[in-house]
Predict the structure of Nuclease SbcCD subunit C.
Amino acid sequence: MRMNSLQMQAFGPFPGAQAVDFDELGADGLFLISGPTGAGKTTILDALAFGLYGTVPGARSDAEDYRSHYADPDTPTYAEVEFTAQARRWRVRRSPRYMRPKKRGTGMTEAKATAELSVFNPESGHWDGIGRTVSEVQAEINRVLGLNAAQFMQIVLLPQGEFARFLRADPIEREPILRQLFNTEHFTGLESILEARARQARAALDAVSQERQTLMRQAQGSCGEDLPIPTAAHPSVADVDAVLGAAVSVVRERIDVFTEVLQSARTRSADAEAAADAAAARQADREKLTQLRSRQEAYATSADERARLSQLQRQAIKAESVAPYGREADRAVREQEAAEKHHTAALTAFSTELSALPCQPETTSAEHIVQAAADGQRAAASIATHLTRVADLTRERTDLQQKQTAAAGRVAELEEKAAAQDAALDELNARLETRSDVQREYDRLLRALEAAAIRQQRGDEITAAEQQRDKQQEALKDRQAEESAAKDTYARIRSTRLAGIAAELAAELTSGHACSVCGATEHPAPAKPTDDTVTKSDEDAALNAWTQAQNATNTARSTLAESRARITALTRSLDELAGEDAAVSVAELTQARDTAAQTLRELDQARRERDELQQKRVALEQQQASAREDAQTSATQLSAVGGQLKQLDDVVSGDQAAALHPFGFETPDTSAAAEECAAQLQRLRNAGETLIQAQTKREDTAAESAERRDAFETALTEAGFTDRNDYQEARQIDKAGVDSALRAAADEAARIAELTSQDWYSPACADTASDEELTDSVAVTAEQRTTAASDAEHLGQLLAVHRHDAADLVQLRERFLHTAAEVEAEVAQRRGDVALDGIVRATSADNLHRLPLSSYALLSLFVEVAHNASERLQTMSGGRFTLIHDLSLHRREKRAGLGLQVLDTFTDEPRDPRSLSGGETFMASLALALGLADTVAAAAGGIRLDSLFIDEGFGSLDPDALAQVMEVLDELRAGGRCVGVISHVQSMLQSIPQQLRIERSPTGSTITHRSSPDS
């Protein structure tokens, strides 16, 4: 696992976008991160940790304030890390939760935490998304790196001061850290099972005691008396039963007392209810009496108004009786005026028509003129009809002559067209006689093509099956080779394990416990595992791999047999498809089929043409018959018209012409002139008739108007009106409003009379109490009713509670006695589970070393950590210091095994790590960190750690010690690691070429990559 690059923005002291290329920095395997205090050197490591795991090392993770205070509000905060793991390039991008400006409006809103993970696809050249939620990304990161956040921050990031605290920590403080780094769950499995059983047992025992104590306290609470309760941790059945029995007796006595008290309270409540109702009724009657008296006074006050309304009502009634006469008089006047206007207009129109005549008639009587105009109009109309008929017959004769000529030509044309259609029908019928032969040939070709297609498909299937068979043969060879290799591997691993079984058994030895081989409790020289030691799990894995390889070989062999059987079946099916057209190619058959199909389409088209032509021939015959009939009809009509023209007399009679002379008209010679003369005389006749009617209407309306006016005046006098103005004032009265007001007054009088006749009226009048006295009486009786009802209800509730308590106590006692014997038997079994857990988890004095199974496993790993760290420390200290594992039991410790001491070769005495100087502490802490990293990496599956970051501490070393520490870092670099260190030490600034310089300013920090040392 190697860190490749880091990009961050608005993170920590960095307000803008910053990029760190670890591949370029780590080209030499070692680079330095430098800068003034507080500039942000450690922030680079924080950004790495946050990008990968969403948290940062140490106490800084509690702040969760990752956003830069120097950044603009609109600048997003993120950290993006690219790393290589499992031979693939990965990129993870995270944003923390922070406040940002709202996109709409003003103010701030919370930006949610986000995470995105992608992997580079070398084939497409693009990044493929893996996860987009925080949980998905974190799960995939843990899987890919093989480390959780705590492990990463202990073995890849060596935080400032963290390992010095770990070095100086008490053994009891180291255990939670080591458990966080090493997976010992498989060792704690048995402990968890036994602990769970013991916890259940203790819970069961406590539950029994608690249940019995609860029963007794419940009984005491139900009866409300201080009953004597036993103080033993586990009360007996007899103790509990005695308490329950006493509680039942107390509650039953209390029920008898409350029953008598409740009966008296209910009697008092009923009396108070009746008194309150009576007081409320008196007050209600007083309120109704007050309202009634107010209404009586108001009615008496309105007497004058009622008299005035009655007078108005009488006037309005008289006006309504006279109104019809007035309306009739007005109508007669309007009709007389209209008749006068109509007569004037009719006289004007009649004079206009007279003036339009060629000469004026001798008479001036409208009646005589109208009669003469009627005679002249009829004569002119008769002349116009005679002349119009002659003209129509002449035109009709010309049209008939043209139709006769056209009909003869149409008959000849249709006969020629019929001959052509008969010839075409004969030709089409001859072609259609060959269609049945063509159809049979087409059907035969279709069957031949279908058979050829099936043969071709079978051939293609055989070819594909043979290719698949060849691939399966190669696959079978590969599976057989893999099976042989897996078999050899299993044999080798099993042989190796049997050879090193002594070391495996020695790993299980415990001081003071008998050896499973020889039985001895002392183990002075146990066998040690070699570099090629294998375990039982390794052997099981190899056996499982061999079994899987055998299964894969059998599967490949079965698949190959199925393919061979399929090829045989397909070949047999192909042979069965051979026929008479087997030698003809598919292309030739297809061409022949297409030719036959085209011929069929052409013949079908010919058949449609024949059918259509036959229909046209039938229609043509109908057209021929119609044309002959038209020619005959035209000849007949032409003869008839000629006869009619010979019979017409062109001379107009003298009487008809004489009727036109009084008005100055000459005898017309055209129908149009005759029609115009008739129209003019008709207009004169109409105008005269209208004038005569208007004269009659004028005379009639004048007489009726005088009659209606006299009747209206008579009605006014009889009704008592002095004149028309008096009548008009009466017409303005709102009779509906007056009627409504008088009805309302009558209704009020009836309601008042009804109220005074009701039963409550007389007692209310006789009641001499004041309103205040009635109000006080209602309040007092209502309060007394409420109090009495509340007392009765409360007593009823108490009685119900006591009865319920008595029933509950009886049930509790019965249930307890029913299960008591069974519970006592279970208690003995549970005590055995508790004792076994104490031994396995070292909580019992029977475990002499007070060391549980999981701690023993952790102890073994810690021994390896101390060994790896000692090798580093010896190099750093020039061989002076060695870390040794301390098994002694220290103060405040419950068990031994996680102690550390430093052996000083100058004195050959072990020293407490807290006694080391600052530089010595740094070397020991760094060695411990590197040793822990090696052990965790091995325990996590042998993952390769190609990146390491060390934060501060180098300033406490003298030049020689610093040189020795640098030797260790060079060894790490030579081993392929890229090591980044954070330091202020001047010699490191001068000796490490690749540097990452952090510059600080009032507006935030920036990062600069330098490829040459400072001078």
User: Anything to note?
Assistant: The two ends are 34 Å apart (CA to CA).
